[in-house]
Input
Amino acid sequence: MPGPSLSIGRPTIGRISVETFTIPTDAPEADGTIAWDHTVLVVVTVEGGGQDGLGYGYADRATARLVAGTLGPLVAGMDALDVNRAWIAMTAAVRNLGRPGIASMAIAVVDAALWDLKGKLLGRSVADLLGRARDATPAYGSGGFTSYSDRQLADQLGGWAADGLKAVKMKIGGDPADSLRRVKLARDAVGPEVQLYVDANGACDRKAALATAEALAGLGVTWFEEPVSSDDLEGLRLVRDRGPAGMAIAAGEYGYTPIYFRRMLEAEAVDVLQADATRCGITGFLAAAALAEAFTTPLSAHTAPSLHSQAACACRPMMNIEYFHDHARIERMLFDGAAVPKDGLLAPDPGRPGLGIEFKRADAERFRDAG
Output
């Protein structure tokens, strides 16, 4: 699809707006450390060159306040095609606020909107703007919350397997015996051919993590995510070194800056590096991919499947994308063009410019936060 002519003058960033929506979960959800009953969706719209760029993330309302009060006014008037220039300005502006956490998530949602705007101005998908390494990326179904009944767990994971996903992931807690029971149930539900992943969300100490890994190896578990806290790089390295052969240790979803990813890789703490563009931004996700490639480590995208389906196509060390139940449900409900796996793959539509999605604001209105 040809883009508009930019020969007369380069477009500038105009008005920036931000909205938040609180969406209840469809059932109580919990992992090995916390429980929740809703998800906050943050949506940013950036105007420029007669187009609207859309960015979104799953964060806190505080990110919206930072976008409205600091980041939006900062990038307004900048060249709409210079996403890197805006990135540098935003990261510099939060120096005294603390880069990780809320500040980075606010930057990330604006960054996504700027990439979407650039794609729409040039008539190209974000995957094409970044330069494709592939047309589609493997996806794995993710949910299996510790709050689920046995029936809910089996139905959800078994449903993904029936839909053609080649891998599924479930949450486990710090009790090896209960984890083993639930994983046996999951294995029966998905069959022997589907890869089974588990995520402890840092619920285990080092010895419990090793005991759990050994117990699960006989059930063909091939991925153990955050067996200990991601802050415990030595613990992750220990489990990686002493855990069963064929079981990958994965972590990195809480990375906000390239320095975080570099330290994790330098510590040889993971077999698979995770990154989340709703936390580190699409621009930061590309940096994580470059680091993963430098350390010959596969990269996995954490949650937000529609956002990651674009960036993942441009990242050479990409392994897969997490098709996370909460976010996949929200994206299908509130975004036209939301990514849905086909034959186990997520493939962005090259005929849709930018991120390839449009926000169904009327459908989201009932979830809108006041103020």
Summary: Residues 1-8 have pLDDT under 50 and may be disordered. Residues 97 and 103 are 7 Å apart (CA to CA). The two ends are 39 Å apart (CA to CA). The first helix runs from residue 61 to 75.
